[in-house]
From TrEMBL:
It comes from the Eukaryota. This is Protein zer-1 homolog. It comes from Corythaixoides concolor (Grey go-away-bird). Residues 404-750 form the Protein zer-1 homolog-like C-terminal domain. Belongs to the zyg-11 family. Pfam families: LRR_Zer-1 (PF25013), ZER1-like_2nd (PF22964). Residues 196-337 form the Zer-1-like leucine-rich repeats region domain.
């Protein structure tokens, strides 16, 4: 089935290629003079491996922000005696003239250069060195490859006044490209004479002239015995064009589609034109007429339509001219035409906007070269995923991922694609998705967040991340995802909704993770960022979700992480705590989060002296009587004081309030709590509580610790009994029962 095929693990070849590219120095190469990569002299690689290395390298540079490109990468393939290249696909800014120049001795059979805007006419000269072997060539979107730099006057000084001018090269042709059969010149620059360029080619099989305006295409008839594929996307057609096309009787694939939004377009498709194609192009298996307006009715009146099951038999076709087909077409492009909504369409695959299948076919067919069409198709998919249910989930996800990877810098695709991903990854589809696929989604979402500071993309990406189990599913990109979120939260102007989602994600990411993760995130400025958000909210006198999540995140990130606790104190965290307490006396959730955090700070012996001020101790003592959030605020305040008491009377460096008075209030608070209280707290370790048991210096701290353990193991036995045993709590309790200094009620509870 499709699911297994595309979700299977990567092949060993792919894994090795990926590893070598990420570790060139440790595998295939060494560094010469600390800068130039050189291949080890004993390495000989066939084209199957070299092609994959080059193509994967281009893919990594394009889609993996952590991957560093190498200046001298292409020079590794300069000598065909040690590395052979045959079929390579290069894209965008990654490739420059010197890179092609480096591999000019290779016998390339297939060279695809897609949107390589940095290539100039120097690369045209390099192409000549492949002329005797090249069978397939694409120069799609290489808009500068016919320009060379002309230096007027040629003198050194003059150049400063007159910077180099770009001049169109007029004399290049495909002379000598004797084996060239497949050629894509899509989006070729105006002013190049296509006819002259192609004249030397003896027998062309496939030609793509997308986006080029030619009034006369009569020269195409020279290849009427060899041309099997012709693409004239967005070319302004006329009757003359149609007459020429009808003579190309060997055509199997014809694409005269257009982007109906691009420009005013006089030509209208008629029944007669479609009849002409069906009668003359008898080998046709694929036809694309997307975006065309039909001048007259090409459809069969609905009364005459054969009812019953939808059929792809030409005889039953709802599109009249296609009744003349000998057999159904393999592909028929009808995107953004009225015809795609008809009942009987004689083709196995149809691109259109009628249903999910047609929309997915459109995304698949147009992603690589037509982002303007693809973004509209993804928008339709977004509506299907949002309103109905997607039936081809796996295919939909893979197509959206491909489009987002392929068009990283296209705003429309990033906006519609990231929105579609949100709906395609939500919980109802969860069961149908493998780990590998979900990881790919996370990768493209993070790419989008990295390359786009645009609000809609950022919001969509953050929302999509909320569909994943955090932190587990984001663990493999932990650093990167935290950096991106902190980056969003540190921007001076912020969108409220994004801020809320980003703080929620930050909080989830530091909840229940290892301490080394927390330390790493602390070093990235996490504590500072949260305190800044709290500061802003305080200034606005608002206590909203962002305020509460920020304190909650600080509570999580300081858990058993002394470095982060220290940062909290150093960045005036206590000042903010007091201000929040004063400004929002009724906010229970806020009080719980703040005291949970201070409980973590109080567990660090070296930091406790900083809490030892009359002001702080009075605040903690008064919170013992708080009924906020059940017992949580009172419990946490008592926990903070228990750790402070544990340092003994000599550490009590203040006159007011008296130590004995605070102790009395602590006993009263603990006795007022219901021992069966359900809790709003999560312990990963009992270590900070257990250390309060084997001591006689503060019986009340011992009692608080025993109460805490008793409550947790009796209300949540499955979770906390194993933890108590694992961390050696039983012998500590037994010893404490024998201690003379322990209070009777503490021993009862321990027993």
């Amino acid at each position: 089935s499709l699911k297994m095929a595309s979700d299977s693990p990567e092949s060993l070849m792919t894994l090795c290629t990926d590893y070598c590219l990420r570790n060139l120095e440790g595998t295939l190469c060494y560094l010469l003079d600390n800068e130039t990569l050189r291949l080890h002299p004993d390495i000989f690689l066939p084209s199957e491996i070299c092609d994959k290395l080059v193509n994967e390298y281009v893919e990594l540079v394009k889609t993996d922000s952590i991957f560093e490109p190498h200046e001298s990468f292409f020079t590794l393939f300069s000598d065909p005696r040690s590395t052979r290249l045959a079929r390579i696909h290069l894209r965008e800014q990654i490739v420059q003239d010197q890179d092609l120049e480096a591999i000019r001795k290779q016998d390339l059979v297939e060279l695809y250069l897609t949107n390589c805007e940095k290539l100039t006419a120097k690369s045209l000269q390099t192409l000549v060195s492949f002329s005797h072997t090249l069978i397939s060539l694409s120069l799609f979107g290489c808009c500068n490859i016919f320009y060379e730099e002309e230096n007027p006057g040629g003198c050194e000084d003059d150049c400063l006044v007159n910077p180099t001018r770009q001049v169109l090269v007029k004399d290049f042709t495909f002379e000598g490209f004797s084996r060239l059969r497949f050629l894509n010149l899509g989006r070729l620059i105006e002013g190049v004479n296509v006819e002259t360029l192609l004249r030397p080619l003896a027998s062309l099989a496939a030609l793509d002239l997308s986006g080029i305006q030619l009034n006369d295409v009569g020269f195409l008839t020279r290849w009427k015995d060899s041309l099997v594929s012709l693409v004239l996307y967005n070319m302004d057609l006329s009757e003359e064009h149609i007459q020429v096309i009808a003579q190309l009787r060997k055509l199997r694939h014809l694409d005269i589609s257009r982007d109906h939004l691009s420009s005013y377009y006089k030509f209208k498709l008629t029944r007669r034109v479609l009849n002409l194609f069906v009668e003359n192009l008898v080998n046709l298996t694929s036809l694309d007429i997307s975006g065309h307006t039909m001048l007259e009715n090409c459809t069969i009146p609905s009364m005459e339509e054969k009812m019953g099951q939808t059929s792809i038999e030409p005889a039953k076709s709802s599109i009249a001219p296609f009744r003349g087909l000998k057999r159904p077409l393999q592909f028929l492009g009808l995107f953004e035409t009225s015809l795609c909504r008809l009942t009987h369409i004689p083709a196995y695959k149809v691109s259109g906007d009628k249903n999910e299948e047609q929309v997915l076919n459109a995304i698949e067919a147009y992603t690589e070269h037509r982002p303007e069409i693809t973004s509209r198709a993804i928008n339709l998919l977004f509506d299907i995923a949002r309103i109905e249910r997607c039936s081809q989930l796996l295919r939909a996800l893979q197509l959206v991922i491909s489009a987002l990877k392929c068009h990283k810098d296209d705003k429309n695709i990033q906006v519609t694609g990231s929105a579609a991903l949100f709906y395609l990854t939500n919980s109802e589809y969860r069961m149908e998705q493998s780990v590998k696929l979900r990881r790919q989604v996370i990768q493209v979402v993070l790419n989008g967040m990295e390359s786009y500071q645009e609000v809609t993309v950022q919001r969509n990406c953050c929302l999509t991340l909320c569909n994943f189990s955090i932190p587990e599913e984001l663990e493999f990109q932990y650093r990167r995802v935290n950096e991106l979120l902190l980056n969003i939260l540190n921007q001076s102007r912020q969108d409220e909704s994004i801020q809320r989602i980003a703080v929620h994600l930050c909080n989830a990411l530091v909840c229940q993770v290892d301490n080394d993760h927390k330390e790493a995130v602390g070093k990235m400025g996490f504590v500072m960022t949260m305190l800044k958000l709290i500061q802003k909210k305080l200034a606005d006198k608002t206590c909203d979700q962002v305020m509460e999540f920020s304190w909650s995140a600080l509570w999580n990130i300081t858990d058993e992480t002394p470095d982060n606790c220290e940062m909290f104190l150093n960045y005036s965290g206590m000042k903010l705590f007091l201000e929040c307490l004063k400004e929002f006396p009724e906010k229970q959730e806020l009080h719980r989060n703040m005291l949970g955090l201070l409980g973590n700070v109080a567990e660090v012996k070296e930091l406790r002296p900083q809490l030892m001020t009359s002001q702080f101790i009075s605040v903690f003592s008064n919170l013992l009587e708080s009924k906020a959030d059940g017992i949580e605020v009172s419990y946490n305040a008592c926990g903070v004081l228990s750790h402070i008491m544990f340092d003994g009377p000599e550490a009590w460096g203040i006159c007011e309030p008296h130590r004995e008075e605070v102790v009395k209030r602590m006993w009263a608070a603990i006795q007022s709590w219901d021992i069966n209280s359900r809790r709003n707290i999560n312990y990963r370790s009992f270590e900070p509580i257990l250390r309060l048991l084997p001591q006689g210096i503060s019986p009340v701290s011992q009692h608080w610790a025993t109460w805490a353990l008793y409550n947790l193991v009796s209300v949540y036995p499955d979770k906390y009994c194993p933890l108590l045993i694992k961390e050696g709590g039983i012998p500590l309790l037994k010893d404490m029962i024998k201690m003379a200094s322990a209070r009777q009620e503490t021993k009862e509870m321990a027993r």
